[in-house]
Design goal:
This protein has about 375 residues and is an alpha/beta fold. It contains 14 helices and 12 strands. The chain has helices at about 20-35, 60-85, 120-125, 140-150, 160-170, 200-205, 230-240, 255-265, 280-290, 305-310, 325, 340-350, 350-365, 370-384, and strands at about 5-10, 40-45, 90-95, 115, 155-160, 180-185, 215-220, 245-250, 270-275, 290-295, 315-320, 330-335. Strand 11 (about 315-320), helix 11 (about 325) and strand 12 (about 330-335) form a beta-alpha-beta unit.
């Protein structure tokens, strides 16, 4: 017998945009609901205009993708939902999986549609907040204003951290629609993250030229300015002879400016880059690193922090929100503008006792983000 008699249609992101984390969020939410014996299916924007270009994130391709995402799909959505009587059932709910698609709420039944807000960085950036590290073009400012206006009117909303919820409420002048249900629900793990045996790590990482006996610190993420990759180079420079291991950047390639800076510091021979690692390679990196270093200036949640902890890596992270919130005190947090503070904190991690304490605290912290705990909160929100 089903524990929940409602059905969900989850509106996921446009596939050509290759927003991997948002696609994983939708898939994980669907799978978590299925684990609770709740019917859920995923709808995505139709790819029509975007099929004629290779890149939908820049130039003409971006504008063609906008036609698919914000004109064609909403029209099809309205026809599908409003005309077909089966979508008028009171037990059928719609959930938009990414706040950047908040305009879809205007085409869905009021009171039966909700949305997840992952961050407000792009919105704040469009309003001129420099600490968001996401400046916007004139067109981008209009788009973000449109997104915010629909978020403000959402009747059902989840935010992935208290930091994100607070940021959204601030942008809404601390008011929300009358009778609206807004709730903070953390992200859950969207993959199987656990320690990989060292011999398996060594075999997998050898393919990237990483010697089995050479320690390394790890950074995971994009090359965006807010990720603060440069700090890892500055930290290694500050450590000088006290630690001469490698620095591994996993995710996006290093940009030319960062490569030039590494050469200026004489660190170019100590850098490894693993571009777009698959899941097993990422687990190997987390499992084998001396420490995971996460000096980000701005995040909505910060998945890599708990992924690293789940694989047994001690975490050294920024002390800016939401990083301390997500670690729950299980990581070392210092000023992301201070390489010296990161260097001193890293030396603490080299102490075996301190390292073991951080690893054990990390495992305990990860229990807060189990998919079943998150899906139960999600269902409670829609049961209210």
């Amino acid at each position: 017998m089903k524990q929940f008699d409602k059905k969900f249609i989850l509106l996921a992101n446009y596939l050509p945009d290759r927003q991997e984390s948002m696609q994983r969020y939708a898939l994980n939410l669907r799978d978590s609901l299925h684990a609770e014996e709740v019917d859920a299916e995923i709808w995505r924007p139709t790819v029509f205009f975007g099929a004629f270009v290779k890149n939908t994130n820049a130039g003409m391709g971006k504008w063609l993708a906008y036609l698919d995402k914000y004109m064609l799909f909403p029209a099809l959505l309205w026809l599908r939902v409003r005309v077909n009587p089966k979508y008028a059932e009171k037990g059928l709910f719609f959930h938009v999986c990414d706040h950047s698609n908040s305009p879809y709420l205007g085409f869905l039944p009021s009171g039966r549609a909700g949305i997840t807000c992952h961050d407000v960085l792009a919105i704040r950036g469009s309003l001129g907040f420099e600490d968001a590290y996401t400046p916007a073009t004139s067109a981008g400012k209009l788009l973000q204003r449109w997104i915010l206006n629909h978020l403000r009117r959402a009747k059902i909303l989840t935010a992935v951290s208290q930091h994100t919820m607070n940021g959204l409420l601030e942008l809404c002048n601390h008011t929300k629609p009358l009778g609206a249900r807004w709730k903070m629900i953390y992200n859950s793990f969207n993959g199987d993250f656990k320690p990989m045996p060292l011999p398996d790590c060594q075999k997998r990482l050898a393919a990237f030229g990483m010697a089995a006996d050479l320690p390394f610190v790890l950074s995971v993420g994009s090359a965006a300015e807010r990720k603060n990759r440069k700090l890892l180079l500055d930290m290694a420079h500050c450590l000088a002879k006290q630690w001469e291991g490698k620095i591994c950047f996993a995710g996006a390639p290093m940009d030319p400016a960062l490569l030039a800076y590494a050469e200026k510091l004489g660190l170019q021979d100590r850098i490894s880059v693993v571009v777009s690692p698959d899941h097993d390679t990422l687990v190997a990196l987390y499992s084998a690193c001396t420490a995971f270093v996460f000096p980000s200036f701005a995040e909505g949640f910060g998945w890599p922090l708990i992924e690293a902890q789940a694989c047994g890596a001690p975490v050294l992270a920024s002390n800016l929100s939401p990083m301390p919130e997500i670690s729950g005190g299980s990581a070392i947090h210092v000023n992301p503008y201070s390489p010296d503070e990161f260097a001193l904190a890293f030396l603490e991690i080299l102490d075996p006792e301190k390292r073991n304490q951080l690893v054990e605290k990390g495992f305990e912290n990860c229990k807060r983000f189990k998919p079943r705990l998150i899906s139960s909160q999600f269902l409670d929100l829609y049961s209210a």
